[in-house]
Specification:
Distance between the termini: 36 Å
Shape: globular
Number of strands: 8
Low-confidence stretches: 225-229
Radius of gyration: 18 Å
Length: 229
Amino acid sequence: MSYRYGYFIQSIIDENGNKAGYEALLRYYDPVDQKWKFPTNFKDFSLREIIPLLKDVLPRLNEESGFLSINITLNQMYDLRYEWFIRWARGTIYPMKLRIEISITDDYKPNLLVKRNIIKNLKKSKELDVDVILEKIESTNVFLKKVKWMFKDISGIKIPFSQYRKTGDDQWVDINMGEWKRIATSYGFEIDVTELENSDDIELADNLKLKYRQGYLIDKPNYGESDFK
């Protein structure tokens, strides 16, 4: 059975409430359930497979300004074609700016060679004016130790507010939002926030002077229903 893959688009605003850009979120259409779903095999996609899907996004953006964020895996960033891909994507989405978002899973344990190559591509991204954002930031010291080796070379992190909504007394937060702000300042990168759902989330983002915000309170991912004009 073949599935139809495509990018959904979700708006991102700045601290003043102005539209700053979009995130392209990969989904597939399940003909049995007749629903769009998150692909569990995203880690198996090659950079080459992303290209036709990205081309499909462009007409819906209607030559917007701002930036377009694209998610890739750490394995895709390690790919020898990474520089070629970001050069192609940067030129293709012009005048929008390209942002790359990456995340690290619990079971991902890169060796020294892999880390060196990822850092090389992070540095190359900066040379080409492509921001790389580490997303799905967790609130634990274990997570911090796992990703700290990237901090000197990334442009920012994206924190989901769900990490700070307690679901029970046993939920422990090692690193609060204020501490993340201190870490970001010391390394010189920005903090984006996502999963904004209420006015309290906006107030916290305002208090910490966090620039880019995303979430259902602002806009839901869509395949074409939103007005991009």
